[in-house]
Amino acid sequence: MELDEKRLHRILKITCYHPDKKSTIINILDKARQKKGLDLEEVGFLVNLADRELIDGLFDVASRIKFEIYGERLVFFAPLYISDFCINDCEYCNFHIRNKGLVRKKLTLDEIEDQTKFLIDMGHKRILLECGEDPVNNTIDYVVDAIEKIYATKTSKGNIRRINVNIAATSVENYHRLKQTKIGTYQLFQETYHRETFEELHRYPKKDYTRQITTHERAFEAGIDDLGLGVLFGLYDWRFEVLGLVSHAQYLDKEFGVGPHTISVPRFCPAPTVTYKPAYPVSDSDFLKLIAILRLAVPYTGMIISTRETPQIRRIAFRIGISQASASSVTTVGGYNQNNLKSQPQFEIYDERRLGEVIDDILEDKFLPSFCTACYRVGRTGERFMDLAKPGEIHHFCRSNGILTFAEYIEDFATDGLYERGYEVINHYLNQIDNEEIKNQTLLRLKKIKQGKRDIYF
Ligand code: SAM
Ligand code: SF4
Question: Is residue 378 part of a domain?
Fold first, then answer.
């Protein structure tokens, strides 16, 4: 992947919005409704949009696409930081090597098991594994052992069924090792697509822009076809970053026949030893706008929001494009049972609610919380996933699997009236399954879950 930055700047310039371009925007929104994505120039017009009425039109199309493709489901996960050792010096991150006051911590396998048990007993089924870059402390062997330990950990409430991985850019050989441990998505954020800014904000191995932007290709070469992109918003002009993300997604689609499985939209958050102030802070309204634009531009790519955002922003974002969210997160190594009070977080978070509280909140908006991990476990990934997703076929499985995994959650964890409120939403969506065979099968499986059976899916 080589990004033609000049072209992106040119597009931003020529698509600068003028009131007389109204018909152009209306045509773009009409095209987006067909869920076939947008080209870069069309995205350019949308990022330059300033007219309130047209922005409302953009949000309207984004939420339609979101509901037509992803339905009412919202998938939950939690990050698990296994080590804050890092040899890089990213300006924005508290784990940067210049943080000499941080007593670095790398979890032992026993500690990883403890943290995992804590997450399982909270109701989680999906983990995003995270660590700093350190070839001595965080070797690929350590990461692989950690993944195997997490998968092997069980409590009376079940186990973790999918581990997504967010570790620094690495080699084909190392990605091959990751692939063998049966990871879900491999995510790596470009941080910024603007080369000059990237080189200014990073030192040591991560300063290598080319290494970062070509890493998904190496992962693909190693057989990982489930890939996640992202930008750390605030480092550079968000409008350029959106064009960068869409270019990257289109490149992967063209070169490998599969676009990214997910796009993450982290926004910079303050952190203890970070003095860096984002040069391009993204306002709440621009942040929501960029989520909506991405929803139109790459409709079949899942979008992830984290607890870097407030409950209020998350609530709106869920409607206009987000399909996965973290909940009850900590960004401290060993932070889930607080047995390592010397640790510091990677950054501050803005949604500190427990998983149960987040779930209760989204039920009010009639979202269906999902802990589904079925697709990758039955091999519906990469091209196979897209072949089902694009004609809308995946919907049939997803709604039922969402219902079944949420029923498991309710049976095992619901308190304070969540049981009743949860089943109310389940029944609402059960009635909307239009395929009689799948509906009957779902009812049968729900009955088994109530009788104590677990992990049954389509
Ligand atoms: N260390 C690896 C790396 O940098 O690629 C793995 C992931 S790192 C633990 C996760 C992500 O956290 C980074 O890619 C970065 O975008 C994000 N991050 C770092 N500092 C942040 C901050 N102050 N606010 C919000 N996100 C931050
Ligand atoms: Fe290290 Fe990642 Fe933090 Fe950079 S963002 S300092 S690579 S942990």
Answer: no
Return d(Cα 194, Cα 202) in angstroms, integer. 12
- Per-residue pLDDT, averaged over 51-56, amounts to 96
Q: Which residues have CB under 8 Å from 405's CB, separation 6+?
A: 125, 370, 371, 372, 373, 457
With a 6 Å cutoff on the Cβ, whether 400 touches ligand 2 is: no
pLDDT score of 382:
75
Residue 125 lies in a domain: yes
Each residue of 221-261: pLDDT tens digit? 999 999 999 999 999 999 999 999 999 999 999 999 999 99
Is the C-beta atom of 266 inside 6 A of ligand 1?
yes
CB 88 within 8 A of CB 204: yes
Can you give the residue range of the structural domain that contains 31? 5-67
Same domain, 27 and 55: yes
Ligand 1: residue of 83, 93, 98 to mutate (most ligand atoms within 8 A of CB) is: 93
The pLDDT of residue 341: 65
Q: Which residue has the least CA distance to atom 2 on ligand 2?
A: 132
271 lines ligand 1 (CB under 6 A): yes
Cα of 275 vs centre of ligand 2, distance in Å, is 15
**Domains contained in the chain, number:** 3
Q: CB of 271 closer than 6 A to ligand 2?
A: no
CB 59 less than 6 A from any atom of ligand 1 = no
User: With 0-12 CB in 10 A as exposed, 13-18 as middle and 19+ as buried, what is 400?
Assistant: buried
Q: How far is the CA of 93 from the centre of ligand 1 (A)?
A: 6
* Alpha-carbon distances of 88 from 95, 189, 412, rounded to whole Å: 8, 15, 42
Amino acid letter for position 146: A
The structure tokens listed for 82 are: 């296994």
Q: How far is CA 49 from CA 158, 202, 252, 285, 334, in A?
A: 47, 32, 27, 12, 44
